[in-house]
Each structure stands twice: as structure tokens, then as C-alpha cells.
């Protein structure tokens, strides 16, 4: 599946009827999913985020620009954020199955359409830039809207697409392709933007310009790579903020930007009181922050994902000036499909399984057994992690807990995936026409691949349970033994589902899936048997 994110920033954040209409123009295109509309009153700017297949996203972006051009008049626009057009910037970001080169091509397609069909000046930036001096958005936007008329008279500033003349009511826009950018504001306990600017100049990659005794200017680089920052004051929050764009999370993750702001604020006699996410953030970025602060506290990183996210939220103070809801801010959580079975209570799941319907059935139950095995491995590792007498094994215990949590989540996801695969198979069997045979075959193989993935996770689960039995607390050895037993049950149950789903298929691909499932059962059974035998021995049963 190809998925592209588009994040237009429009120069309107005060009139809800305008920014909502502009966002809905994009959402009206089939295949576009609107994820977030984040207005700012003081900035007078709204960040709109939507995703979809490449062609749909280009069409959605074009409709958004068309609507913004009809509703926003830059001649009367004022706000705290730098801007040069009604749609100020419109980047394409690869999310899944799409390369950066493909996003560059999308930027050119949109730029050409906007220039030719709407008659608006368009500049290309970041990876889509046509010349080195246009790679930086800040460089293109220098002087902002007010400087456009004069700049457009210079042939070297001719747009990449559209007319080389000012369109007064719109201005000009910048379209590009870039990595995932996190718009992130750090809150200070002051109300003077000059103090926030000092911290911003400290941290941003560009740094600050210093004037020497002879009047000469020199550039003093900032502390953080891939960071752009300015300071401003937001009356609605009653505080100044360091407004940050993190353009390369590999170089500067969110938590590093926050910690550095905190250090520089303290050095200048200020306090950081929290922070704010504008728009969306990738799941891994928030997990990295949570792991960072858990480690700093001496706690295990191998806790449930919700706990990791909570640690990030509290440590970064993400609810300081506005509520933070991970389900509305983390892009993968927004895009995640509903998981009706996993969301059930234990009572509801057991009741649903017991009813006279084929799903959920043995495949989902096997996945649940595997998830419980992983949960027990993580629990035993986490119980032992803080114990001083087990300090020599603390790092290994933490790594086991982290891996077990990841396996737990994969297997929980398989509970619903198994039922969905069964439903797709039933739908394929109801088809008519020449496509039916191929659809049934592919649906049958998929119905086998889901439990196969469960079975193939089980040898590792048995191994993890065995290891925590060896190096964990003696009082938790029975939990490790139960975990090994659950891994064995999960492997057997999943492999049975692989076999029954492939009954009647005798080709090489089906035979390979069955072989892999059988191998997973054999390996899991052997290791789980060893673990349980050792647990029984330690519990006094011979």
C-alpha cells in the first residue's frame, strides 16, 4: 500500500469557518483521509494534515489550494508566524511504500497544476528544490509576504511554476518533499519573546549572527542539527515559546530538543514549564522519548506501550498549554484499524468465542495464548529489573522485557487479524466469475499466513521464558513456567489452524507453510518442555 502525507500550512487560524472549509476541500477528494486541523490564533495559521494514495493526495492538495485562494486575502493578514502566501507551504512526506523521489515528482505535479490552472507563483523546496539556494524554506520566505513584490522583480527569484508577478490577494506558495517534520513548541515561564529567541538561537542549527568589535559579522552555529527555531509570545497561553521545527528526527529527536531547551533556559535564569505538539508526530518519536525518560529514571523500558507514551507525555509536559491525546496526535494511532476483539473485556471475548459463529476461533485464541506468554516473560523480567542483588543481569532483563512487549503487541494484533483473514476467505468463497479461483487461493494462503506468524513467534517466547526463569527472581519462576506452557499451546494451536486452512491445497507454497508451522511446534515444544521440567524441579516436583 502506498501512503503519502501532505501537511499544508495556511495563513488563517482565527476564522474557523475558513480553515475548516479549506481542510474539507482536501477531504472531499476520494481516497484522502483528513487527520488533523490545528489552528493557532496568535500565529493566525492552521496546520492541516491528510494522507492517502499519491494521486489522491495531489488532487486533495490542489483542491485545498483552490479553496484557500478563494477565501484568504493576504493583503489583510497579520500573525506571529512567518508567511508568504495564503497557502504558505505544502510538503509531501513519504509514509509507506513511497520513496522520496516519488514525493518530489508529486511536488512538481502539484506545482505545475497550481501555476498553470490557478495562475499562482510556486517555489519548490527541500528535496524538490530546483537549485541549492531554494532548499531552505526560510531562505525562500525571507522578507515574507511584504517583500514579494520587490523580490519578484529580480529574475533570479522567478518562481519554479506560475507567473513571476505578485498575486496580491494570495502571495506565493512553497511546495516540497521532505522527511517527517515535527512542529514542536517549548513553553517558558516568561512573557517576553526576546528571552525565547535567545534560547531559540542557542539551539537552532543556524545559530546566531554576532558582530565583532570592528563591525564584522560572524555566524555562530547553534547546538542542534536539523533544528529550526524562533521565539514568540502567545497571549492565549500566557507564555513565550521556543517554536521549533525538527526536520531530521534521526539527528535531533524530540526529547533532545526539549532537554537542550531546558538546559539553555536554566542557564539564562528561566524555566521550561512544558511543551506543545503542533500537528502530528510519528509513533517511534514519542516512544523514543518515553524510553529516554524511563532510562533516565532508572526504570525498565520494557513496559507496555501505553506506559511508555505516558512517560513521554508527563516528562515533556505535553499537556501544559493544551490537552494531549495520543490517539489524536500520533499518526499510526490515528491510522490504526479498529480492533474489536482486542478491545473486548475478558468476559466479552470468552462469550463471543463461545457463540455459534466460526470466528473468533482457535486462531485468535492461539494468538491470545502467545500474547499472554509474552506478557508473563515481560512481567518476570520487570519484577527482577530493580532488584539490587540482580544488578549484574539488569541490562539483559530490560532487553528481554522490551522484546517481550513487542512480541506481545504483535500477537495481540493477530487476534483480530486472524478473524479478518477468515472473513476475507468467506467473502472470496461467495464470489462468482472467473476471478473467484484466484481470490479464494490468495485468501486461503493469507488465512494460513496469520497463524503461521503466531506459531513462528513461539520458539522465541519459550526461549525468553526460559531465560527469565534462570536469571529472574526465584519467587517468579512459576510465572515463567506458565509462560512457557502458553507458548507451547499457542504454537500448537496456531499450527493446527495453518494445516486446517490449507486442507485441499497440495502445491509447493502450501506445503512450505505447513512445514514451517510444524518446525515451529517442534522447536517450541522442546524448549518449553525443558523450561517446565526445570520449573517443576525447582518447585519440588520430581
- What's the total helix number? 17
**Helix-residue proportion:** 40-55%
Overall radius of gyration: 28 Å
CATH structural fold name of the largest domain:
Four Helix Bundle (Hemerythrin (Met), subunit A)
Q: How many β strands by DSSP?
A: 13
Specify the structural class: alpha+beta
Order of helical and strand elements: EEHEEHEHEHHEEHEEEEHEHHHHHHHHHH
Distance between the termini: 55 Å
Tell me the count of domains.
3
CATH homologous superfamily caption of the largest domain:
Formiminotetrahydrofolate cyclodeaminase monomer, up-and-down helical bundle
Envelope shape: globular
- Could you list the spans in which at least 5 consecutive residues all have pLDDT below 50? none
Please state the second-level CATH architecture of the largest domain.
Answer: Up-down Bundle
Q: Tell me the major beta sheet.
A: 7 strands, mixed
Question: Overall mean pLDDT score?
Answer: 95
Strand content: 5-15%
CATH class of the largest domain: Mainly Alpha
Task: Provide structural commentary.
It is a single chain. This protein has 17 helices and 13 strands. It has 542 residues and is an alpha+beta fold. It folds into three domains: 3-177, 2-Layer Sandwich (Formiminotransferase-cyclodeaminase, Chain B, domain 1); 182-335, Formiminotransferase, C-terminal subdomain (Alpha-Beta Plaits); 346-538, Up-down Bundle (Four Helix Bundle (Hemerythrin (Met), subunit A)). The strands form three sheets. Strands 1, 2, 3, 4, 5, 6 and 7 form a seven-stranded mixed beta sheet that branches. A hairpin with a 4-residue loop joins strand 11 (227-234) and strand 12 (239-246). Helix 13 packs antiparallel against helix 16. The longest helix has 36 residues, at 394-429. The protein is globular.
Amino acid at each position: 500500500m502506498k501512503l503519502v502525507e501532505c501537511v499544508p500550512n495556511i495563513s488563517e487560524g482565527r476564522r474557523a469557518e475558513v480553515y475548516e472549509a479549506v481542510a474539507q476541500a482536501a477531504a472531499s477528494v476520494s481516497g484522502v483521509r483528513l487527520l488533523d486541523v490545528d489552528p493557532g490564533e496568535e500565529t493566525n495559521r492552521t496546520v492541516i494534515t491528510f494522507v492517502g494514495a499519491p494521486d489522491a493526495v495531489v488532487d486533495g492538495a490542489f483542491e485545498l489550494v483552490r479553496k484557500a485562494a478563494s477565501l484568504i486575502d493576504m493583503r489583510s493578514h497579520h500573525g506571529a508566524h512567518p508567511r508568504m502566501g495564503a497557502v504558505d507551504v505544502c510538503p509531501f512526506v513519504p509514509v509507506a511504500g513511497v520513496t522520496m523521489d516519488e514525493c518530489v515528482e508529486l511536488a512538481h505535479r502539484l506545482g505545475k497544476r497550481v501555476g498553470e490552472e490557478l495562475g499562482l507563483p510556486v517555489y519548490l523546496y527541500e528535496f524538490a528544490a530546483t537549485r541549492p539556494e531554494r532548499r531552505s524554506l526560510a531562505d525562500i520566505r525571507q522578507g515574507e509576504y511584504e517583500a514579494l513584490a520587490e523580490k519578484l522583480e529580480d529574475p533570479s527569484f522567478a518562481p519554479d511554476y506560475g507567473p513571476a508577478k505578485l498575486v496580491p490577494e494570495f502571495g506565493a506558495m512553497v511546495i516540497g518533499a521532505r522527511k517527517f517534520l515535527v512542529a514542536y513548541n517549548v513553553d517558558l515561564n516568561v512573557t517576553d519573546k526576546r528571552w525565547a529567541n535567545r534560547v531559540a538561537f542557542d539551539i537552532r542549527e543556524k545559530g546566531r549572527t554576532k558582530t565583532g568589535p570592528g563591525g564584522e559579522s560572524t555566524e555562530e552555529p547553534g547546538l542542534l542539527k536539523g533544528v529550526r527555531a524562533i521565539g514568540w509570545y502567545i497571549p492565549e497561553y500566557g507564555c513565550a515559546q521556543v517554536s521549533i521545527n525538527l526536520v531530521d528526527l534521526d539527528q535531533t529527536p524530540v526529547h533532545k530538543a526539549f532537554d537542550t531547551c531546558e538546559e539553555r533556559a536554566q542557564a539564562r535564569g528561566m524555566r521550561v514549564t512544558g511543551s506543545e505538539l503542533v500537528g502530528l508526530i510519528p509513533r517511534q518519536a514519542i516512544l523514543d522519548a518515553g524510553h529516554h525518560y524511563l532510562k533516565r529514571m532508572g526504570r525498565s523500558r520494557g513496559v507496555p506501550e501505553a506506559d511508555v507514551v505516558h512517560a513521554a507525555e508527563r516528562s515533556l509536559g505535553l499537556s501544559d498549554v493544551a490537552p494531549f491525546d495520543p490517539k489524536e496526535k500520533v499518526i499510526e494511532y490515528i491510522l490504526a484499524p479498529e480492533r474489536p476483539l482486542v478491545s473486548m473485556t475478558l468476559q466479552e471475548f470468552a462469550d463471543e468465542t463461545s457463540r455459534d459463529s466460526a470466528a473468533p476461533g482457535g486462531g485468535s485464541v492461539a494468538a491470545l495464548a502467545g500474547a499472554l506468554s509474552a506478557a508473563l516473560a515481560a512481567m518476570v523480567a520487570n519484577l527482577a529489573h530493580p532488584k539490587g542483588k540482580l544488578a549484574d543481569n539488569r541490562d539483559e532483563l530490560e532487553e528481554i522485557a522490551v522484546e517481550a512487549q513487542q512480541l506481545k503487541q504483535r500477537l495481540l494484533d493477530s487476534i483480530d487479524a486472524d478473524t479478518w483473514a477468515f472473513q476475507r476467505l468467506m467473502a472470496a468463497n461467495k464470489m462468482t466469475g472467473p476471478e473467484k479461483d484466484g481470490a479464494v487461493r490468495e485468501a486461503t494462503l493469507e488465512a494460513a499466513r496469520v497463524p503461521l506468524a503466531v506459531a513462528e513467534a513461539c520458539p522465541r517466547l519459550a526461549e525468553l521464558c526460559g531465560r527469565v526463569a534462570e536469571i529472574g527472581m526465584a519467587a517468579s519462576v512459576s510465572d515463567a513456567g506458565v509462560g512457557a506452557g502458553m507458548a507451547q499451546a499457542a504454537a500448537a494451536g496456531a499450527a493446527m489452524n495453518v494445516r486446517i486452512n490449507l486442507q485441499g491445497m497440495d502445491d509447493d507454497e502450501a506445503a512450505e507453510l505447513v512445514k514451517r508451522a510444524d518446525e515451529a511446534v517442534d522447536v517450541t515444544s522442546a524448549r518449553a518442555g525443558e523450561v517446565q521440567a526445570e520449573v517443576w524441579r525447582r518447585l519440588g516436583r520430581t
